[in-house]
Each structure stands twice: as C-alpha cells, then as structure tokens.
Design a protein that fits this description.
The complex is a heterodimer of chains A (273) and B (207). Chain A is 53% helix and 12% strand. Chain A is elongated. The two termini of chain A are 16 Å apart. Chain A is of the alpha/beta class and 273 residues long. Chain B is mainly alpha-helical. Chain B has helices at residues 4-22, 26-63, 69-89, 94-125, 132-147, 150-155, 159-194. In chain B, helix 3 (69-89) packs across helix 4 (94-125). The interface between A and B is large, with 67 and 58 residues.
C-alpha cells in the first residue's frame, strides 16, 4: 500500500483532529494576519458614519445562539460605532432569542459610552409575524409596540416616543441568519417605506445578498466573521472577530489542502483503473 | 361548507390586502392595518399549538419507550424549566438569563460549529473534479475560500479583488436568474391559492 492509498483510506477522526488543532492553535498563538476591508463593509461603515448625531438606527438581531459566534461580533462592532457617533439604537429581533443576544451586546458596549437605556437605546424585544409585522411596524409603530422587552410601557421612554413610523428611522441594520431576516427587511420594509437597509449575515448567506447590493437595495454587507473583523478594523477595536480570523484562515487553508489531496487521489485512482 | 368557507376567507382577505397595497386611501390602510394586527394575534396561538404538539409527541415517545426516549424526558424537563423561569422571573430574571447564557448559547454554538468538522471530511471525500462543471465550481470555491480570509490577502493582495468579482458578476448573474424563476413561481402559486385552485393547505379536507 503506497502513501496515496493510505491517505485515501484515512480515518475521518484524524481529519476532525486536524480541524480542531487548526482552530485551537491560532487562538492560543495568534499569527496577527492583516485584515483587508472590502467595499460592502466599507459602505456600511460610511453609511453609519454619515448619519447626523441622534439619528435613529434600528438594530434587528435576527439570529439565534447557533449563529452567535458569527453575528454577535458584528452586533458589538455596529453598536460600538453607533454609540461612538452618538446615534440612538432601537434594538429588536425577528427571531425569539435575537433580542436576548442583542441585550448581551448592549450590556457590553453601552456602559463604555455612558449611554442611558430609554434615552440613547432601547430593546423592544422579539416581534413575531415576519413580513406582515414589518409592513405594520413601518406604518404605525405605536399600534404594534406597546412595551419594551421587559414589559415596561414604550411611552415611558423618550426613545420609545420618538419612533412613530418608518419615517423616524434613519437606517436599519439587520443581523441575519436566515428567514425571517434581511430579505424581509428589503422586500417588506425598504421597498415600501424607502428606509435604507444594511446587513450583517452569516458567511453562508452572504453570496445570496449580492444581487441586492448591486441593485442598491442594500447599502452594504458584513459577510460572516470576516465581515465583522473588517468592521472591527474600521472602528479600531480588537474584538472576537479579529481574534478568530487566524483560526478561520488556517481552517480554510486546511480545507483547500483536503480538496487538493482528494483530487490527487481521484486522478491516481483513474490512472490505476 | 367545510371547504367553501375557508376558500371565501382566503379569497376575500388575500385580495383585499393586495388591493389595499396599491390604494393609499385612509380607510383601506386602516382596514389593512387591522388585518395585520389580527395576523400577529393569530400567530400567538401557533406557540400554544407548537407546545401542545411537542408535549404530545414526546410524551407518547416516553410512554411507548421508543428509541432515544430518554432524550424526550430531558427536552420536556427543560421546556418546563425554561417556561417556568420566564413566567416567574420575566426576561430579566436571574434563572432565565442563566439558562440562556450558560446553556442555550453554548449548546446552540456547539451544534453549529460541528458543521466545520463535517465540511472538512466532505471536502476531502466528496468535493472532486469529476466533470468540467464540477471543476469550475471547485476552482471558484477554492479562490473564494482563500480570498475571503486574511491569509489569502497575505499570500496575494489581489485575492480579495478576484473574490469580489466572482461575487459581483457570475454569482449575482446566476442568483438573479434563480430569483426571477422562483419569484414567478411564487406569484403563480399565490394566485392558485387565492383563487382556490391550490387547496393542499386545507389538509385532507381540501382534497
């Protein structure tokens, strides 16, 4: 049995072990690889940066714990930028655990900038109903949102009273892991009320958003952990996304090596036949 | 009547909402808003149906000792525990937050991260250039995989630019074609439902 035969019958547990090592070692010994910034990420940054002080940004956490590792770093980086620019954040979620995850990000970022709940930011919680709810929300927020995520009447907060309809919203940033998510915000909110939409999605969803980027229906896009790392670079913070880039680089390189090895074995087997 | 009444409701409400979309008159918009509020109200009942269903299926599994019935006990226990913690302490309650932060988040992230291991195994065994189309797909995938991470930029500064081109041109063109096809299908399906031609949503009663 030569080396190619041995590799072709490799135990998959060895592959799993190599992947685990490729993730763990760069986390323990960072390589400090440079993070380039792509145009879709820079467009989101420029859009947030161009908003006037006290503008209202809806941050919609449309994800669950399965995508937390990819999307929470993006949520934190966006909040960091919003609070630094003195923008007001109206947090919500189309997925039940989304606002809870968003709350953890708010608790991590808001105290750094001494932002006050109800004045500078608010969490209105999970909003069920997907597309129908978005149409309704854009038309009359008060009809749909009576309380924040903790059940406190929305009218008791200055920011709660400030948002009456889509006209009061300057930008929506959706952090999306599937349906309902970015597509619903574009079709049922932006198309109807003209509100600008920016998105951060899981890496697997990012290619699907490019038609909306080129048509201008999305102002920009943060794709996966890399997108979050690019945003962290722009806001000059080193968060979980930047820390994870070395691991992701090595794992991607390992996958490419696996693909090349698999195809060398395919050629070898064809010749042998 | 069992079939006719749902058909009339679907036809009347469906077409009204479509018409209201194009007519900005106050009365139309107000009625449309009312229907949308009803819809979100109806959605709340789905939660009860979902809970009822999950309890029924898992209780049956435990009772009949079907395969992996022990997991059903854990599922029902945590369903009750999480619901209880939420009802008693609210979303800011200590136990609810503790369970969410220290159990649901790590468990969800663990399940999702397992994909990396299966993708690696599949990359080695299944991602092979057997046909010209598969070769093209494979080359594009390798460029995107390398170009989307910092090591690609480190190897060659032009990699991210090539990735953006792949995303903006071939990917967008293919995606647009798929979207147009899917959306035309969606419109025809919606019309079939509204006009009562498609009745499978009514279950056996619609047959």
């Amino acid at each position: 049995m030569n080396i190619l035969d041995r590799i072709s019958s490799i135990d998959r547990r060895i592959i799993f072990l190599l992947v685990a090592l490729a993730v763990i070692i760069p986390l323990l010994i960072p390589l400090g690889l440079p993070v380039d910034v792509s145009k879709p990420v820079r467009d989101v940054y420029d859009m947030v940066d161009s908003l006037p002080e006290r503008a209202i940004v809806v941050v919609s956490c449309d994800y669950d714990p399965g995508s937390e590792a990819e999307l929470t770093p993006a949520t934190v980086a966006i909040l960091e930028h919003c609070f630094r620019k003195n923008l007001r954040v109206y947090l919500m979620g189309l997925w039940p655990p989304g606002p809870e995850l968003g709350n953890l990000a708010l608790e991590a970022v808001a105290p750094k900038y001494e932002r006050v709940y109800g004045v500078d930011y608010i969490n209105i919680g999970y909003r069920p109903g997907g597309p129908v709810m978005l149409v309704s929300l854009g038309r009359d927020v008060a009809d749909l949102v009576r309380a924040d995520y903790a059940g406190v009447p929305i009218d008791s907060f200055p920011l709660g009273r400030a948002v009456k309809s889509a006209r009061d919203i300057d930008l929506v940033v959706t952090l999306s892991a599937g349906d309902p998510g970015v597509l619903h915000w574009i079709i049922y909110f932006s198309a109807r009320y003209g509100t600008r939409i920016a998105a951060a999605t899981t890496a697997i969803m990012a290619p699907q958003q490019y038609p909306y980027l080129s048509s201008g229906q999305l102002v920009g896009l943060l794709g996966g952990l890399k997108g979050a790392a690019e945003y962290e670079t722009l806001v000059e913070t080193t968060g979980r996304a930047t820390a994870g880039m070395d691991s992701q680089s090595i794992v991607h390189l390992l996958l490419v090596i696996f693909i090349i090895m698999g195809n060398i074995i395919l050629l070898y087997e064809k010749r042998r036949r | 009547m069992k079939q006719t009444l749902p058909l009339i409701i679907v036809f009347a409400f469906g077409f009204f909402v479509i018409i209201a979309f194009f007519i900005p008159l106050g009365a139309f918009q107000s009625a449309s808003q009312t229907f949308e509020t009803w819809y979100t109200g109806v959605l709340a009942f789905f939660v009860f149906i979902g809970i009822f269903n999950i309890v029924k299926v898992n209780a049956n599994k435990i009772q009949r000792r079907l395969s992996d019935w022990q997991y059903s006990i854990i599922l029902l226990l945590f369903l009750i525990l999480m619901m209880g913690a939420g009802f008693i302490g609210g979303p800011e309650g200590g136990l609810f937050n503790y369970l969410f932060e220290h159990m649901q988040i790590p468990l969800g992230a663990t399940m999702f991260s397992l994909l990396a291991f299966f993708v690696a195994s599949a990359a080695f065994r299944a991602f092979r250039a057997r046909t010209p189309e598969a070769t093209l797909l494979l080359i594009a995938a390798v460029i995107v995989m390398i170009g989307r991470v910092p090591i690609g930029y480190y190897i060659w500064r032009g990699f991210p630019g090539v990735v953006e081109w792949i995303m903006n041109v071939p990917n967008t063109a293919a995606k647009r074609g798929i979207l147009f096809g899917a959306d035309l299908g969606l419109i025809s399906m919606a019309l079939r439902v509204l006009l009562g031609i498609e009745r499978s949503y009514m279950g056996r009663g619609g047959e």
